[in-house]
């Protein structure tokens, strides 16, 4: 029996000290082929440092063997010794039979470092040298998929599938293609691929993409069933709950929508978008106070979220709680650019508080974007009429009547002003 075989038997039996001694003897006595096989075996068992020791021993004997350099580079990457890995890879010349493989390993390394442009360059160089190599096409497709460049990924996955390759490195290419189509909004094409995948082979992400695809195709019953299936298998997948709730809303099943989003809250209490959706659905269900609770919680979690801020502000305005709205918006208006809608809300709140100057400022600020909004124009006209400012009153009244000529009361007011 060779020392290499003895070393493996001892390693598998947990006899580490004996294994170390046999490894030393193997390096001194066994054939190079045996040592190469031993390196592969110990690496597969998680002893990467010992694998490196064996490869380094062989590399000293065969300095021209570029395959050993690449093996050492891969092990260095595993141990987070990136500079050492790059040193090994740089020793592989472009005319080497192993050069394409070295490019692939380098691409992986640069991708893990976040240097995506260099990683892509390495993969494209490898593809240029071996254009028909499926492994390279797959690596490039996976690179584009990972970096969300789905259109380029689609072309490569399609090429592989057309050649009869449906799976590589335990990756289902049909699945990848379906997800890629869904991510670029081509839901009909996505569905054709996603529905081919057997449920037993679907992970949570793919289940979500299938449900999301049904949702975007307005097949809400199927979307609900698919989201429920995902929820049953992975209830912690919090992204599903807003879409499940929206699917119920689209079928006018608001009570069930509210229950679904409340379930989402119980799963992920730190996702402001779940609180936002809960507030919106509570409003639909005429649960105004509950909606306020949800909007306030979402705003507390994400005070920078303008959409949540606006929903909360709108709630205060709709319920004529102008002082609460002032407290909310005055806390952010000095730090952030207030958009037209929030400026309009501020104007109404300052008007209620009797602060004519600030109300005027905010009506004028809002006017830049809301000059075609009848509600805003009417409020502004009435504000300036109350403030005794005829010129801006008439300006806003005229714009309002251009949009709503049938408002007899406001038309009469405009006519009265002409007589002044």
From TrEMBL:
Entries under SUPFAM superfamilies matching the protein? TPR-like
Bilayer-crossing regions = none
* Pfam families for this protein: ARM_TT21, TPR_19
Signal peptide (residue range): none
The family database entries (PROSITE patterns) matched by this protein are listed as: TPR (PS50005)
Q: TPR repeats at which positions?
A: 204-237, 238-271
Q: What InterPro entries is this protein classified in? A: TPR-like_helical_dom_sf (IPR011990), TPR_rpt (IPR019734)
UniProt key word Protein biosynthesis: no
What keyword terms does UniProt attach to this protein? TPR repeat
Gene3D superfamilies in alphabetical order: Tetratricopeptide repeat domain
- Name-wise, this protein is Tetratricopeptide repeat protein
